[in-house]
Each structure stands twice: as structure tokens, then as C-alpha cells.
Amino acid sequence: MKKLGWFLIALFCLLHGPSWAQEEERTISGAITSIDWVSATISVRHLPPFRDNIDEISLKVPHGATITRGTKKISFLDLQVQDQVSVIYYDDGLSGLKVKRLTDLNLAPA
Length: 110
Known about the structure:
Elements: H1 2-20, E1 25-36, E2 41-46, E3 55-60, E4 66-69, E5 72-73, E6 84-91, E7 97-104
Parallel strand pairs: 4-7
Antiparallel strand pairs: 1-2, 1-6, 2-3, 4-5, 6-7
């Protein structure tokens, strides 16, 4: 009976544990180095704070992410390699890093 109780507690923690984790948002600024249209993923090359070397990070862009250029909302399809961007993202656990808000700093007309 004790084993069943511990099993149920462990199962509950596994199922509900990720929802207890706080979604810590982080912000980076850099240039888009690659775009995968099929998996809705971008790679951004940026300079991490308090470091001297450049880093590259891959981020999933979910349908609910807000993407803007200036004051206008744009589509994921409007992003281009080499665009300078500012990205607010969070770690979604097993799903990886996900974009919450992406601002395209390229204000030149397309």
C-alpha cells in the first residue's frame, strides 16, 4: 500500500511539476542567422551579457508569439536572415526555448 501511495505522489509531481516552474523570461538582441520555416525555428547570434564571445541560440516561434516591426505586427514569414532582432523568450522545459515576443529592428521597407 505504501508503494502505491509513493507511486501516486511521484506521478502527480511528474504531471504537475512543470506547471509549478516559473517561466523566467530572458531577452537577447542580435541577428537572425537561420530560419527553419517547417519547424518554425530561428537561430539568433548574440553577445551574452558580461562575456566577450558571441553565442548562437535556437528558438521556437509558436503561433501565439507576438512579432512586430516598428509599430506594425508582422508574420513569421516576413522575417529574413540578417535581420537585427530583440527577442523575449522563455524555457518551456522539454519543448525547448520559445519566443514570447520578437521585435524586428529592420525598419527598411521590404
